[in-house]
Amino acid sequence: TGGPKKYGTRTGTPSFKRPAKAHMPKFDDKIRLNKYLANAGLCSRREADTLIESGVVTVNGQVITEMGYKVEPTDVVKFDGATVKNEKKRYVLVNKPVDFSLRYEEDHSKKSVYQLIKSASKEPLIPVGKLDKSATGLVLYTNDTDLELKLTHPQVRVSQLFHLILNKEMSEEDLEKLTKGLFVNEKMFKAEDASFVKGKSHNEIGVKIFSSKSNMVKLMIGKLGYEIVKLDRVEYAGLTKKDLPRGHYRHLLEKEVGFLKMN
Predict the structure, then answer these.
(1) Of 23, 88, 107, 123, which sees the most CB atoms within 10 A?
(2) Contact, 139 vs 102, CB < 8 A?
(3) Quick check: 250 and 93 in contact, CB under 8 A?
(4) In the 8-state DSSP scheme, what is residue 62?
């Protein structure tokens, strides 16, 4: 019962809709009434505007027809006399095993992270960003579309640390190139930090980036003529794998959620 309730036609993930223009979201305890109704699964925001205008929505017993009206988390919202419950926001961090897909799989013989988090939430969750099926490590799932939009926004510098095992040893010169920057497909990519893993051969490296995209590491490594045998994301947006074994999940602490929204 904890899996997603709706699925998109192309990806198989819950059918949340992004805004036409991906503006950076602003976080506030108050939210617009039309968004409250949409988040509850009652209708779309545009349909909610029509309901509000028609006078069938009340807040704390008062009919509200004002467009843009904002409600508090403690307000009682009713539609046609029935209380509308806004879904609780969930933030689930998963340590993904190898060969598990991030998306929902109708065929249960195919491995999906949704099989690991099915008891984590009654609300449908979506993964934040992407991680290859062959990769392992941290993935955040949530139903907070504002946070998902922020963390995947091109302008946001999300910290990500990867432990890589390559098909051959990397030279110190190539390691330096990762932090100096490389042109890949006419775009400049640059790692914040790159180093050899202490006590290991030089085919094991750690690479830290500040980007909403995870594939830039793979692109840089490929540009230098190496192949990634194993990729493990050990840190994501300040969150780590500490006390989170492979294949397990945990809910974020309130202070962790606050940190993600703040930065």
Answers:
(1) 123
(2) yes
(3) yes
(4) E
CB 128 within 8 A of CB 148: yes
- Listing DSSP states for 102-130 in one string gives SS--SSTTS-BHHHHSTTT-SS--EESS-
Q: Three-class SS of residue 18?
A: coil
Picking from 122, 112, 114, 50, the residue whose alpha carbon sits closest to that of residue 85 is 122
pLDDT at 11: 36
Supply the pLDDT for residue 130: 93
Cβ(87)–Cβ(143) below 8 Å: yes
Q: Which letter does DSSP use for residue 46 in this model? A: H
pLDDT band at 1 (very low <50, low <70, confident <90, very high): very low
pLDDT attached to residue 27 = 61
- Pair type for strands 249-251 and 91-96: antiparallel
Tally Cβ neighbours within 10 Å of residue 85. 13
Residues pairing with 164 in the sheet: 205, 231
Q: Cα–chain-centroid distance for residue 37?
A: 23
Both tokens of 2, joined, read: 């904890």
Q: Which two tokens stand for residue 179?
A: 């932090």
d(CA 224, CA 182): 9
